[in-house]
Every structure is written in C-alpha cells, then in structure tokens.
C-alpha cells in the first residue's frame, strides 16, 4: 500500500482485517507515524464497538508493516497506490515501482479517482499488469470497489483483481472504463458541486441543503457533509480532472470551493469545512 491518508489507511485496514499481509509506505517518518495512528484509531473504534475481538485486533496490527522506504515493496504481489491525487506524484511512483518490483507477475493498481490509468501503465514498464482499483470512503464500510482496466491492461490482470476484491476482501466490484470520474464520481461530483454552487448563491443554508437530500431523498448524508467527508481538496481535484477531460461546465469547481481549499478549510480531516468538527 502506498499512502496512509484518509483512503490509504482505510484500504490497509480492509486488507489486514481480511487476513492479507500489508506493507504501508509513506513519504517520511512523520507521515508513517500519522498513518499508523489513523489505522490504530480506526481499529480502536471497531474494538470499542465490539466489532473486533482483542485477538483479531492484535493479529490485524501484526499483519501491517509501516515504513518510509519504497524499496520495501520489492517482494509484493500487489501494490495499491493511494498517494495524493496529483498526476506528477503518481507518474513518478509508477515509474519507480516498475523497477522495484521483483515478481514479474506483480500487479500495480491505483486508487486514483480521475487520473488516466493508461498513463500510469505507460511509465511503469508493465502496462498489461497495471489497472485502477477505486475504493470508497469510509473504505471499511463501503462495499463498492470500481475496477478500471485501461486500454493496455490484460484480461488476466482484470480477473486477478476481481478475485482479490471479491474473494480476498469480500467487496462488490463494478467495472468502468478508463475515463475521468469512472461511474460513481461522474454522477456524484456534479451533484456535490451543484450543492456547493447552490450554497454559494444563497439558495439555502448548508444544514437545509443537506437536510433536503437526507430527508427528501433518503441519502445517508447531505452533499455538503459528504464533501467534507471526502475532503474539499479531493472534491476539487476530481472536478478539475473531469473538467479537463470533458469540458463540461458542471464539473468545474465553483469559486467558493477554490477559496475554501486555499484557506485550508478541507472538511473533516482539517477540522473545518462546511461544518466544524470537534
Ligand atoms: N471507519 C470504519 N467504520 C465506520 C467509519 C469509519 N470511518 N464511519 C462509520 N463507520 C461504521 C460505524 O462503525 C457503524 O457501523 P455499525 O452500524 O456496524 O456499528 C456504521 O459505519 C454507521 O456509522 P455511524 O452510526 O457512526 O454513522 P452513520 O450511520 O451516520 O454512517 C457513514 C456514517 C457510513 C459515513 C454514512 O453516513 C454514509 O454511508 N455516508 C455516505 C458515504 C459515501 O457516500 N461515501 C462515498 C464517498 S465518494 C468516494 O469515496 C469516492 C471518491 O473518489 C470521492
């Protein structure tokens, strides 16, 4: 696993709880500590709610190694990358991983929401064994995983990843083509951006917009609270990638979202977004 942020730490937890041996790589000793704290606090919560026994808690943690050394991934059969949603960072990682992995059959997968998988495959030197595997937040709860083969992924890579998601993790996959947004974000992101535009234009308060969709449409949470959960920087980055690809105005982030991200109001992870978090 590469990246122990919001998504990476959740994906690591899902794998380790499913009995899979995981090495989590972060960029610095400080980031390693933060990732370890994130995974541990989520497991503490599961233990506290009686959803995990002490024995399973201990064995889950034993299955995870935390490191800031990318070379530690050399012997892995599968690498899932969930680094920052920036193309330059991901291209650099896939270039380096293509050289580091010693198992010729190893698969390199990205949890990107919107960056073309085919580009990551091209720089890796193993384009047939590269594809997208997109988890949803919170990863331990959400059942869906999008599988995204690129033009150059082999059918065998797709089938191995399908087996990993279903038999390995017990999640439900859908298959999408390698276009920015895939299935879920193509539908979700314009909706979230429309809610932000609505709030920006003064249609209604944040609480009322959210209440409208929770009570009126039966959503588990409203669009502004969901944007806070995903991270406003991530919502913005996905919108930009989708706009770059399709030039569809509804995908373009509204000025309020730009300003909030510039101000460091990133949602739940920074303690403040459309709502404050304690
Ligand atoms: N980690 C682990 N478990 C968690 C969790 C987390 N971060 N957050 C909630 N849970 C678990 C709780 O333990 C609880 O489990 P039990 O019922 O078995 O005890 C269950 O989820 C419900 O949690 P809560 O009662 O605390 O809160 P809730 O009922 O309000 O549910 C929620 C919280 C699961 C987040 C729910 O509001 C929800 O489903 N929201 C929508 C989330 C969503 O749409 N995610 C997709 C985002 S898009 C994306 O991720 C893709 C992208 O690229 C942007």
Automatic annotation (TrEMBL):
Keyword vocabulary terms for this entry: Oxidoreductase
SUPFAM superfamilies (UniProt xref): 6-phosphogluconate dehydrogenase C-terminal domain-like (SSF48179), NAD(P)-binding Rossmann-fold domains (SSF51735)
Gene3D superfamilies to which the protein is assigned, alphabetical: N-(1-d-carboxylethyl)-l-norvaline Dehydrogenase, domain 2 (1.10.1040.10), NAD(P)-binding Rossmann-like Domain (3.40.50.720)
Coiled coil: none
Pfam families: 3HCDH, 3HCDH_N
Pathway info: Lipid metabolism; butanoate metabolism
Domain 3-hydroxyacyl-CoA dehydrogenase C-terminal: 181-277
Domain of life: Bacteria
Domain 3-hydroxyacyl-CoA dehydrogenase NAD binding, first and last residues per copy: 2-178
Similarity section: Belongs to the 3-hydroxyacyl-CoA dehydrogenase family.
Name this polypeptide is given: 3-hydroxybutyryl-CoA dehydrogenase
Species of the source: Aeromicrobium alkaliterrae
